[in-house]
User: Fold this.
Amino acid sequence: MRDANEELQKKGVKIYGVSFDAVATQKAFAEKQKLPYDLIADPEGKVVAAFGVPSRGKFASRTALLFKDGKLVWRDPKGSTTNQAEVVLKAMAKDTKRKAPQGKAPKGPAQRDSEEERIFVPARGRDLDA
Assistant:
């Protein structure tokens, strides 16, 4: 996700990493890995549980969730650091082809903001170090 962040941003994707780690741990991890997206500290596991991400102890499974207009539209329960961005882009392309409105004018800038897509990826140091 890190290496494809610019391409994903151009397509309106906002990435958040979520982990059980404390803010200080996440900050060090983000700096070491040069992550261009925000990390959400979830030491109590409330965010992870709310999205139904499986976890073992204090490690959330690497899962990608794609939201559009505030609704979950796609889930990848077996996210991989090697090709996750590619998988997300393919999912977005399929969604666009399937739901392309016919005969409608493009939406204005104010309306586009509400359609920003967001992806949540549990962040774990060992995934990016591999």
Q: What stands out?
A: Helices lie at 5-10, 23-33, 46-50, 84-99, 109-113, 125-129. The first strand starts at residue 13 and ends at 19. The chain is about 35% helix and 25% strand.
